[in-house]
Specification:
Helix content is 33%, strand content 19%. By secondary structure, the chain is of the alpha+beta class. The protein starts with 18 loop residues before the first strand and ends in a 14-residue tail after the last helix.
Length: 453
Protein backbone atom coordinates (compact mmCIF):
# COMPACT_ATOMS: atom_id res chain seq x y z
CA UNK A 1 0.00 0.00 0.00
CA UNK A 2 1.22 3.50 -0.88
CA UNK A 3 1.17 5.25 2.48
CA UNK A 4 2.23 8.71 1.31
CA UNK A 5 -1.32 10.07 1.09
CA UNK A 6 -1.88 9.26 4.77
CA UNK A 7 1.11 11.33 5.88
CA UNK A 8 -0.38 14.81 5.46
CA UNK A 9 -3.63 16.74 5.62
CA UNK A 10 -5.05 19.74 3.79
CA UNK A 11 -2.93 22.15 5.81
CA UNK A 12 0.26 20.65 4.37
CA UNK A 13 1.32 19.33 7.78
CA UNK A 14 3.40 16.19 7.20
CA UNK A 15 4.47 13.18 9.27
CA UNK A 16 5.69 9.61 8.99
CA UNK A 17 4.38 6.11 9.71
CA UNK A 18 5.61 2.52 9.60
CA UNK A 19 2.36 0.92 8.43
CA UNK A 20 -1.16 1.82 7.32
CA UNK A 21 -4.18 -0.42 7.95
CA UNK A 22 -7.57 -0.05 6.24
CA UNK A 23 -9.87 -2.40 8.18
CA UNK A 24 -13.32 -3.27 6.88
CA UNK A 25 -15.15 -3.82 10.17
CA UNK A 26 -14.95 -3.18 13.90
CA UNK A 27 -13.55 -6.66 14.59
CA UNK A 28 -10.48 -5.88 12.50
CA UNK A 29 -10.10 -2.57 14.31
CA UNK A 30 -10.09 -4.38 17.66
CA UNK A 31 -7.43 -6.79 16.41
CA UNK A 32 -5.18 -3.94 15.29
CA UNK A 33 -5.69 -2.15 18.61
CA UNK A 34 -4.85 -5.29 20.58
CA UNK A 35 -1.66 -5.80 18.58
CA UNK A 36 -0.61 -2.15 18.95
CA UNK A 37 -1.32 -2.19 22.69
CA UNK A 38 0.79 -5.31 23.17
CA UNK A 39 3.69 -3.88 21.17
CA UNK A 40 3.23 -0.33 22.53
CA UNK A 41 2.96 1.05 18.98
CA UNK A 42 1.39 4.51 18.56
CA UNK A 43 -1.86 4.59 16.54
CA UNK A 44 -3.20 7.50 14.49
CA UNK A 45 -6.72 7.52 13.05
CA UNK A 46 -7.07 8.79 9.48
CA UNK A 47 -10.20 10.10 7.82
CA UNK A 48 -10.55 11.97 4.54
CA UNK A 49 -7.51 14.17 5.09
CA UNK A 50 -9.42 17.47 4.87
CA UNK A 51 -8.34 18.62 8.34
CA UNK A 52 -6.29 21.77 8.87
CA UNK A 53 -4.38 21.06 12.07
CA UNK A 54 -2.46 17.81 11.52
CA UNK A 55 -4.61 15.64 13.82
CA UNK A 56 -4.73 12.77 11.34
CA UNK A 57 -1.00 13.04 10.51
CA UNK A 58 1.06 10.34 12.28
CA UNK A 59 4.20 10.96 14.31
CA UNK A 60 5.48 7.44 13.66
CA UNK A 61 3.79 4.14 14.47
CA UNK A 62 0.71 2.83 12.65
CA UNK A 63 -2.20 4.50 10.89
CA UNK A 64 -5.74 3.13 10.92
CA UNK A 65 -7.69 4.50 7.98
CA UNK A 66 -11.46 4.27 8.33
CA UNK A 67 -12.12 4.94 4.65
CA UNK A 68 -13.90 1.59 4.17
CA UNK A 69 -16.54 2.32 6.82
CA UNK A 70 -18.97 3.78 4.28
CA UNK A 71 -22.38 2.37 5.23
CA UNK A 72 -25.32 4.81 5.46
CA UNK A 73 -28.80 3.93 6.72
CA UNK A 74 -31.36 6.74 6.75
CA UNK A 75 -34.15 6.54 9.31
CA UNK A 76 -36.81 9.00 10.37
CA UNK A 77 -34.98 11.44 12.61
CA UNK A 78 -31.49 10.00 12.36
CA UNK A 79 -28.85 8.49 10.10
CA UNK A 80 -26.52 5.62 11.02
CA UNK A 81 -23.19 6.31 9.32
CA UNK A 82 -19.85 4.60 9.15
CA UNK A 83 -16.94 6.80 10.20
CA UNK A 84 -15.67 6.94 6.62
CA UNK A 85 -18.93 8.22 5.10
CA UNK A 86 -18.34 11.48 3.22
CA UNK A 87 -20.44 14.40 4.42
CA UNK A 88 -21.88 15.22 1.00
CA UNK A 89 -23.05 11.60 0.67
CA UNK A 90 -24.88 11.87 3.99
CA UNK A 91 -26.45 15.15 2.88
CA UNK A 92 -27.56 13.63 -0.44
CA UNK A 93 -28.98 10.50 1.19
CA UNK A 94 -30.85 12.49 3.82
CA UNK A 95 -32.37 14.74 1.16
CA UNK A 96 -34.01 11.74 -0.50
CA UNK A 97 -36.27 11.48 2.56
CA UNK A 98 -36.73 15.26 2.84
CA UNK A 99 -34.45 15.44 5.86
CA UNK A 100 -31.15 17.22 6.47
CA UNK A 101 -28.20 17.31 8.85
CA UNK A 102 -28.37 20.59 10.77
CA UNK A 103 -24.72 21.64 10.91
CA UNK A 104 -23.15 22.34 7.56
CA UNK A 105 -19.34 22.04 7.82
CA UNK A 106 -17.79 23.93 4.92
CA UNK A 107 -15.74 21.03 3.56
CA UNK A 108 -18.34 18.65 2.12
CA UNK A 109 -15.63 16.07 1.30
CA UNK A 110 -14.83 15.63 5.00
CA UNK A 111 -15.76 12.29 6.56
CA UNK A 112 -18.27 11.78 9.35
CA UNK A 113 -15.61 10.54 11.76
CA UNK A 114 -13.61 13.69 11.10
CA UNK A 115 -16.41 16.18 11.65
CA UNK A 116 -17.38 14.43 14.89
CA UNK A 117 -13.80 14.21 16.13
CA UNK A 118 -13.30 17.97 15.69
CA UNK A 119 -16.82 19.01 16.75
CA UNK A 120 -16.97 20.81 13.40
CA UNK A 121 -19.20 23.81 12.88
CA UNK A 122 -19.76 25.53 9.57
CA UNK A 123 -22.27 28.04 8.28
CA UNK A 124 -25.46 26.64 9.81
CA UNK A 125 -24.01 26.08 13.29
CA UNK A 126 -25.12 29.68 13.88
CA UNK A 127 -28.67 28.30 14.18
CA UNK A 128 -28.28 24.55 14.79
CA UNK A 129 -25.09 24.41 16.85
CA UNK A 130 -21.96 22.41 16.16
CA UNK A 131 -21.81 18.69 15.35
CA UNK A 132 -21.56 17.50 18.97
CA UNK A 133 -25.16 18.56 19.64
CA UNK A 134 -26.40 16.25 16.86
CA UNK A 135 -24.60 13.05 17.89
CA UNK A 136 -27.11 10.50 19.20
CA UNK A 137 -24.88 7.44 19.52
CA UNK A 138 -21.31 6.29 18.86
CA UNK A 139 -19.68 2.92 18.27
CA UNK A 140 -16.23 3.16 19.81
CA UNK A 141 -13.23 0.89 20.32
CA UNK A 142 -11.16 1.84 23.36
CA UNK A 143 -7.46 1.15 23.81
CA UNK A 144 -8.18 -1.49 26.46
CA UNK A 145 -9.95 -3.54 23.76
CA UNK A 146 -13.52 -2.76 24.75
CA UNK A 147 -16.01 -2.10 21.95
CA UNK A 148 -18.83 0.10 23.24
CA UNK A 149 -22.05 1.44 21.82
CA UNK A 150 -22.65 4.69 23.67
CA UNK A 151 -25.97 6.51 23.39
CA UNK A 152 -26.91 10.03 24.34
CA UNK A 153 -27.78 10.19 28.02
CA UNK A 154 -25.08 7.75 29.20
CA UNK A 155 -22.86 9.51 31.73
CA UNK A 156 -19.08 9.16 31.92
CA UNK A 157 -18.42 6.60 34.67
CA UNK A 158 -15.00 7.68 35.94
CA UNK A 159 -13.97 10.72 38.00
CA UNK A 160 -12.73 13.87 36.27
CA UNK A 161 -12.35 17.56 37.01
CA UNK A 162 -14.59 19.94 35.03
CA UNK A 163 -12.93 22.86 33.29
CA UNK A 164 -14.27 26.28 32.31
CA UNK A 165 -15.23 26.87 28.69
CA UNK A 166 -15.00 30.11 26.72
CA UNK A 167 -18.17 32.17 26.43
CA UNK A 168 -18.37 31.54 22.68
CA UNK A 169 -21.09 29.83 20.68
CA UNK A 170 -18.50 27.47 19.12
CA UNK A 171 -15.47 25.75 20.62
CA UNK A 172 -13.39 22.74 19.56
CA UNK A 173 -10.34 23.37 21.74
CA UNK A 174 -9.49 20.50 24.08
CA UNK A 175 -11.73 18.05 25.89
CA UNK A 176 -15.31 18.96 26.76
CA UNK A 177 -15.10 18.39 30.51
CA UNK A 178 -18.36 19.64 31.97
CA UNK A 179 -20.50 18.53 34.94
CA UNK A 180 -22.82 15.57 34.24
CA UNK A 181 -20.69 14.77 31.21
CA UNK A 182 -22.09 12.30 28.68
CA UNK A 183 -19.85 9.88 26.80
CA UNK A 184 -20.93 11.12 23.39
CA UNK A 185 -20.09 14.71 24.35
CA UNK A 186 -16.65 13.75 25.65
CA UNK A 187 -15.73 11.73 22.56
CA UNK A 188 -17.10 14.26 20.07
CA UNK A 189 -14.32 16.80 19.76
CA UNK A 190 -11.60 14.54 21.20
CA UNK A 191 -9.83 14.37 17.80
CA UNK A 192 -9.20 10.63 17.80
CA UNK A 193 -7.22 10.64 21.05
CA UNK A 194 -9.61 8.82 23.42
CA UNK A 195 -11.17 6.09 21.28
CA UNK A 196 -11.63 4.91 17.72
CA UNK A 197 -15.00 5.86 16.29
CA UNK A 198 -16.30 3.33 13.75
CA UNK A 199 -19.91 4.47 13.33
CA UNK A 200 -22.34 7.08 14.59
CA UNK A 201 -26.02 7.89 14.76
CA UNK A 202 -26.57 11.53 13.77
CA UNK A 203 -29.77 13.49 14.22
CA UNK A 204 -31.63 14.46 11.05
CA UNK A 205 -34.18 17.27 10.86
CA UNK A 206 -37.21 17.61 8.55
CA UNK A 207 -36.65 19.96 5.64
CA UNK A 208 -38.50 23.27 6.09
CA UNK A 209 -41.33 24.04 3.64
CA UNK A 210 -39.26 26.81 2.03
CA UNK A 211 -35.83 28.40 2.39
CA UNK A 212 -34.88 31.93 1.40
CA UNK A 213 -31.21 32.37 0.56
CA UNK A 214 -29.28 35.42 -0.51
CA UNK A 215 -25.99 37.22 -1.01
CA UNK A 216 -26.46 40.77 0.26
CA UNK A 217 -23.90 43.42 -0.69
CA UNK A 218 -22.91 46.48 1.37
CA UNK A 219 -20.81 49.60 0.77
CA UNK A 220 -18.59 48.92 3.83
CA UNK A 221 -17.89 46.61 6.75
CA UNK A 222 -19.68 49.03 9.06
CA UNK A 223 -23.04 48.55 7.35
CA UNK A 224 -22.53 44.78 7.16
CA UNK A 225 -21.72 44.44 10.86
CA UNK A 226 -24.63 46.72 11.79
CA UNK A 227 -26.86 44.38 9.77
CA UNK A 228 -25.45 41.37 11.64
CA UNK A 229 -26.35 43.03 14.95
CA UNK A 230 -29.85 43.89 13.69
CA UNK A 231 -30.64 40.57 11.99
CA UNK A 232 -28.98 37.97 14.17
CA UNK A 233 -32.08 37.26 16.27
CA UNK A 234 -34.55 37.01 13.39
CA UNK A 235 -36.71 33.87 13.59
CA UNK A 236 -35.32 30.84 11.76
CA UNK A 237 -32.36 32.70 10.28
CA UNK A 238 -30.09 29.69 9.95
CA UNK A 239 -27.02 31.13 8.27
CA UNK A 240 -25.17 34.42 8.55
CA UNK A 241 -21.80 34.55 6.78
CA UNK A 242 -19.47 37.49 6.09
CA UNK A 243 -17.11 38.36 3.22
CA UNK A 244 -14.84 41.39 3.36
CA UNK A 245 -13.65 43.74 0.61
CA UNK A 246 -10.56 41.65 -0.17
CA UNK A 247 -12.67 38.50 -0.42
CA UNK A 248 -14.95 40.17 -2.97
CA UNK A 249 -11.90 41.33 -4.88
CA UNK A 250 -10.66 37.73 -5.09
CA UNK A 251 -14.08 36.67 -6.44
CA UNK A 252 -14.68 39.48 -8.94
CA UNK A 253 -12.85 37.87 -11.89
CA UNK A 254 -15.16 34.85 -11.55
CA UNK A 255 -18.41 36.72 -10.75
CA UNK A 256 -19.19 39.78 -12.85
CA UNK A 257 -22.44 40.41 -10.94
CA UNK A 258 -20.73 41.67 -7.80
CA UNK A 259 -21.62 45.40 -7.52
CA UNK A 260 -18.62 47.59 -8.28
CA UNK A 261 -19.17 49.65 -5.13
CA UNK A 262 -19.60 46.64 -2.82
CA UNK A 263 -17.01 46.40 -0.06
CA UNK A 264 -18.62 43.66 2.04
CA UNK A 265 -21.29 40.98 1.79
CA UNK A 266 -23.45 38.74 3.95
CA UNK A 267 -24.61 35.28 2.90
CA UNK A 268 -27.93 34.45 4.57
CA UNK A 269 -30.42 31.59 4.70
CA UNK A 270 -33.77 31.60 6.48
CA UNK A 271 -36.30 28.82 7.02
CA UNK A 272 -39.82 29.86 5.96
CA UNK A 273 -43.35 28.50 6.28
CA UNK A 274 -43.80 29.00 2.53
CA UNK A 275 -42.54 31.15 -0.32
CA UNK A 276 -45.40 33.53 0.56
CA UNK A 277 -44.18 33.91 4.14
CA UNK A 278 -44.40 37.52 5.35
CA UNK A 279 -40.68 37.30 6.12
CA UNK A 280 -39.96 37.52 2.38
CA UNK A 281 -41.46 41.00 2.01
CA UNK A 282 -39.80 42.12 5.24
CA UNK A 283 -36.36 41.80 3.66
CA UNK A 284 -37.03 44.74 1.33
CA UNK A 285 -37.24 47.19 4.22
CA UNK A 286 -34.43 45.44 6.10
CA UNK A 287 -31.99 45.94 3.25
CA UNK A 288 -32.98 49.59 2.93
CA UNK A 289 -32.66 50.23 6.68
CA UNK A 290 -29.15 48.77 6.77
CA UNK A 291 -27.86 50.56 3.68
CA UNK A 292 -27.43 47.40 1.58
CA UNK A 293 -27.43 47.40 -2.21
CA UNK A 294 -31.07 46.34 -2.41
CA UNK A 295 -31.42 46.05 -6.19
CA UNK A 296 -28.03 44.44 -6.75
CA UNK A 297 -28.18 41.78 -4.04
CA UNK A 298 -29.03 38.18 -4.97
CA UNK A 299 -31.94 36.15 -3.59
CA UNK A 300 -33.53 32.80 -4.37
CA UNK A 301 -35.80 30.02 -3.07
CA UNK A 302 -34.65 26.94 -4.94
CA UNK A 303 -32.09 24.29 -4.10
CA UNK A 304 -30.23 25.42 -7.23
CA UNK A 305 -30.07 28.98 -5.85
CA UNK A 306 -28.69 27.72 -2.54
CA UNK A 307 -26.11 25.64 -4.34
CA UNK A 308 -25.13 28.59 -6.51
CA UNK A 309 -24.62 30.79 -3.47
CA UNK A 310 -22.80 28.02 -1.60
CA UNK A 311 -20.51 27.63 -4.60
CA UNK A 312 -19.83 31.38 -4.48
CA UNK A 313 -18.64 30.99 -0.88
CA UNK A 314 -16.75 27.77 -1.60
CA UNK A 315 -15.02 29.28 -4.64
CA UNK A 316 -13.59 31.94 -2.35
CA UNK A 317 -11.98 29.29 -0.14
CA UNK A 318 -10.54 27.54 -3.20
CA UNK A 319 -9.13 30.77 -4.66
CA UNK A 320 -7.61 31.73 -1.31
CA UNK A 321 -5.80 28.39 -1.17
CA UNK A 322 -4.63 28.82 -4.77
CA UNK A 323 -3.29 32.29 -3.96
CA UNK A 324 -1.22 30.93 -1.11
CA UNK A 325 0.05 28.09 -3.28
CA UNK A 326 1.15 30.49 -6.03
CA UNK A 327 3.07 32.53 -3.47
CA UNK A 328 4.96 29.40 -2.50
CA UNK A 329 4.18 29.61 1.21
CA UNK A 330 1.54 27.92 3.37
CA UNK A 331 -1.82 29.62 3.82
CA UNK A 332 -1.92 31.13 7.28
CA UNK A 333 -5.51 31.08 8.56
CA UNK A 334 -7.18 31.54 11.92
CA UNK A 335 -9.98 29.53 13.50
CA UNK A 336 -10.57 31.87 16.42
CA UNK A 337 -13.89 32.97 17.88
CA UNK A 338 -14.90 35.40 20.60
CA UNK A 339 -18.09 36.06 22.57
CA UNK A 340 -20.52 37.70 20.17
CA UNK A 341 -20.45 41.02 22.05
CA UNK A 342 -16.75 41.29 21.06
CA UNK A 343 -17.38 40.43 17.42
CA UNK A 344 -16.81 43.85 15.88
CA UNK A 345 -13.93 44.58 18.25
CA UNK A 346 -12.04 41.54 16.99
CA UNK A 347 -12.78 42.36 13.36
CA UNK A 348 -11.47 45.90 13.72
CA UNK A 349 -8.32 44.61 15.41
CA UNK A 350 -7.74 42.13 12.58
CA UNK A 351 -8.15 44.83 9.96
CA UNK A 352 -5.96 47.37 11.68
CA UNK A 353 -3.04 45.01 12.23
CA UNK A 354 -3.25 43.47 8.76
CA UNK A 355 -3.46 46.86 7.06
CA UNK A 356 -0.41 47.96 9.03
CA UNK A 357 1.71 44.91 8.24
CA UNK A 358 0.28 43.19 5.14
CA UNK A 359 -1.95 45.61 3.19
CA UNK A 360 -3.78 43.83 0.40
CA UNK A 361 -2.38 40.41 1.43
CA UNK A 362 -5.29 39.08 3.43
CA UNK A 363 -8.97 38.15 3.39
CA UNK A 364 -11.50 38.00 6.21
CA UNK A 365 -14.56 35.81 5.77
CA UNK A 366 -16.57 33.23 7.63
CA UNK A 367 -19.12 32.63 10.32
CA UNK A 368 -19.87 36.14 11.54
CA UNK A 369 -23.06 34.98 13.29
CA UNK A 370 -20.84 33.01 15.66
CA UNK A 371 -18.12 35.70 15.85
CA UNK A 372 -15.92 33.15 14.05
CA UNK A 373 -14.58 34.95 10.99
CA UNK A 374 -11.45 33.40 9.50
CA UNK A 375 -8.55 35.63 8.53
CA UNK A 376 -6.23 34.36 5.78
CA UNK A 377 -2.79 35.90 5.20
CA UNK A 378 -0.60 35.48 2.14
CA UNK A 379 3.10 36.13 2.80
CA UNK A 380 5.17 36.79 -0.31
CA UNK A 381 8.60 35.86 1.05
CA UNK A 382 10.29 34.05 3.93
CA UNK A 383 10.60 37.18 6.07
CA UNK A 384 6.90 37.91 5.73
CA UNK A 385 6.11 34.29 6.59
CA UNK A 386 8.01 34.72 9.86
CA UNK A 387 6.12 37.94 10.55
CA UNK A 388 2.81 36.21 9.87
CA UNK A 389 3.62 33.44 12.35
CA UNK A 390 4.26 36.08 14.98
CA UNK A 391 1.05 37.90 14.07
CA UNK A 392 -0.98 34.69 14.37
CA UNK A 393 0.33 34.28 17.91
CA UNK A 394 -0.59 37.90 18.64
CA UNK A 395 -4.11 37.31 17.32
CA UNK A 396 -4.48 34.21 19.49
CA UNK A 397 -3.42 36.08 22.60
CA UNK A 398 -5.82 38.91 21.80
CA UNK A 399 -8.71 36.50 21.20
CA UNK A 400 -8.10 34.79 24.54
CA UNK A 401 -7.97 38.20 26.26
CA UNK A 402 -11.50 38.79 24.93
CA UNK A 403 -12.71 35.49 26.40
CA UNK A 404 -12.46 33.62 23.11
CA UNK A 405 -11.23 30.30 21.78
CA UNK A 406 -8.18 29.45 19.65
CA UNK A 407 -10.10 26.63 17.94
CA UNK A 408 -13.75 27.25 17.12
CA UNK A 409 -14.40 24.42 14.65
CA UNK A 410 -11.20 22.81 13.32
CA UNK A 411 -9.75 21.42 16.54
CA UNK A 412 -6.27 21.76 18.02
CA UNK A 413 -4.59 18.85 16.24
CA UNK A 414 -0.80 18.85 16.34
CA UNK A 415 -0.18 22.30 14.93
CA UNK A 416 -1.92 24.36 17.64
CA UNK A 417 -1.00 22.60 20.88
CA UNK A 418 0.98 25.66 21.96
CA UNK A 419 -2.11 27.85 21.57
CA UNK A 420 -4.21 25.60 23.81
CA UNK A 421 -2.00 26.64 26.71
CA UNK A 422 -3.10 30.23 26.21
CA UNK A 423 -6.72 29.26 26.91
CA UNK A 424 -6.42 26.92 29.85
CA UNK A 425 -4.59 26.97 33.16
CA UNK A 426 -1.99 24.36 34.10
CA UNK A 427 -4.61 22.72 36.31
CA UNK A 428 -7.13 22.54 33.49
CA UNK A 429 -4.52 21.06 31.18
CA UNK A 430 -3.78 18.45 33.85
CA UNK A 431 -7.51 17.66 34.08
CA UNK A 432 -7.46 16.85 30.36
CA UNK A 433 -4.31 14.73 30.75
CA UNK A 434 -6.00 12.77 33.54
CA UNK A 435 -8.84 11.81 31.19
CA UNK A 436 -6.38 10.89 28.46
CA UNK A 437 -4.37 8.65 30.79
CA UNK A 438 -7.52 6.99 32.11
CA UNK A 439 -8.62 5.90 28.63
CA UNK A 440 -5.19 5.55 27.02
CA UNK A 441 -2.62 4.94 29.79
CA UNK A 442 0.23 4.24 27.38
CA UNK A 443 -0.55 7.41 25.42
CA UNK A 444 -0.64 5.51 22.11
CA UNK A 445 -3.72 6.93 20.42
CA UNK A 446 -3.29 10.14 18.45
CA UNK A 447 0.08 10.83 19.96
CA UNK A 448 0.97 14.53 19.65
CA UNK A 449 -2.63 15.65 19.10
CA UNK A 450 -4.17 18.15 21.58
CA UNK A 451 -1.88 17.26 24.49
CA UNK A 452 1.72 16.31 25.15
CA UNK A 453 2.30 13.51 27.65
Amino acid sequence: MDISRYLEDSSGYRGEADRVFAPTDAREVREIVADASTRKVPLTIAGAGTGLTGARVPHGGWVISLERFREIAIHRGFARCGAGVILKDLQHSAAQSRQFFGPNPTESSACIGGIISTNAGGARSFHYGAVRRHVLALDITLMDGRALRLTRGERVDFPFEPIRLPATTKNSAGYYLQPDLQWVDLLAGSEGTLGILTSADLQLLPEPPAILSGIIFFPSDNEAFAAVDAWREFPELRQLEFLDEHSLQVLRPSYSGIPSAARAALFIEQNLRSEDDEEVDAWTSRLSEQGAFEDESWFGFTAADRERFREFRHTLAVLVTDTARRNGFPKFATDFAVPFVRNRELHEYYKRRCDELFPGQYTIFGHVGDANNHINLFPADAEQARQVESLMREFAEYVVSLGGTVAAEHGIGKSKTDLLKLMYSAGEMDAMRHVKRHLDPDWLLGRGTILQA
